[in-house]
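Page 42, continued from yesterday. The earlier attempt failed because a stray header line got pasted into the input along with the sequence. Redoing it now with the clean sequence only.
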Amino acid sequence: MLGRFEEVVLLAAIACGPKATCNAILERLEQRTGIQRTQTTMHTTLDRLSKKGLIHSTMECASSSRRGGRRRRLFDVTTDGRDSVEISVGLITGMAKDAGLVEEGKNRAA
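This time it went through. Structure tokens are written below.
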């Protein structure tokens, strides 16, 4: 089972699409949830998700002069990562429906 922060990080990474950078995931997370974290915290979480097989990272092929020649680390959510998020969202949605917090076909967050 995923922790809540891991869930939202995976969702943000999925929303960013393939080859997402840590910065892009962090910005998406902040825009959508208001949660502010440091890059160190984000990299720690992404490393933990990688060890669980839920996200995969690669290093950018070419270095960028604007980054002082440093290559970026790019992240892709794995099939297991997507499946884990779908299971978590399904469980939470089902529990919210049971509690009367969500009606069929309606979503307060939308």
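Notes: The radius of gyration is 16 Å.
Reminder to self: strip header lines before submitting.
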